[in-house]
Amino acid sequence: MSLEEISHLLYHIKLADQKIVQIFEENIGISLTRYEIMMRLKEENPLLQSSLQEKLQIDQGAVTRHLKVLEANGYVSRQRNPQNNREVYVALTEKAQQKIEHCEMDHKDTGSVLSPAFSDVEMKQFLTLLDKLNTQLCNITTETKEVNNNGTKK
Questions:
Q1: Sign of the torsion formed by the C-alpha atoms of 23, 25, 29 and 32
Q2: Across residues 101-114, what is the average pLDDT?
Q3: Predicted local distance difference test score (pLDDT) of residue 48
Q4: Cross-referenced PANTHER family, in alphabetical order (predicted)?
Q5: Tell me, what's the pLDDT at 144?
Q6: How far is the C-alpha of 90 from the C-alpha of 78, rounded, in Å?
Q7: CA quadruple 96, 101, 107, 109: dihedral positive or negative?
Q8: Do 83 and 124 reside in the same domain of the chain?
Q9: Which of 109, 106, 113, 111 is nearest to 20 (CA)?
Q10: Within this chain, do residues 56 and 97 fall inside the same structural domain, yes or no?
Q11: What is the per-residue pLDDT across 16-28, written as a single tens digit (0 to 9) for each?
């Protein structure tokens, strides 16, 4: 592909991402990242804030900002680890669990944001392709960091 074609493709991905996220957040009533935080905590509750950061692949400052909003809304509680004061455990509250259940019920009633565009099979294929792309991009990012840190590629 030429650079122009790649640019065009990336721009269309960006536009689709913006619209999908907007629709998702309007339907759910919470930001996508905050919803993902609650989903990770639903899987493993409580969870160290640093582990949450790693699972979501976002920086520490962003996790802290999102958690402050979730905490202010009564969706999470944070507590320092008594054995290591530098660690913070994050836990879902009952209010968050009710919010998640409510969102899941609404989703069943209204259907997926992507349902009109893709069949279930196509959605699974799309997810497989996105996972493949993200894995490759992580490898490129890791290689770039190694070059920048060492001056030579390993």
A1: positive
A2: 71
A3: 93
A4: TRANSCRIPTIONAL REGULATOR, MARR, TRANSCRIPTIONAL REPRESSOR OF EMRAB OPERON
A5: 59
A6: 5
A7: negative
A8: no
A9: 113
A10: yes
A11: 889 888 888 888 8
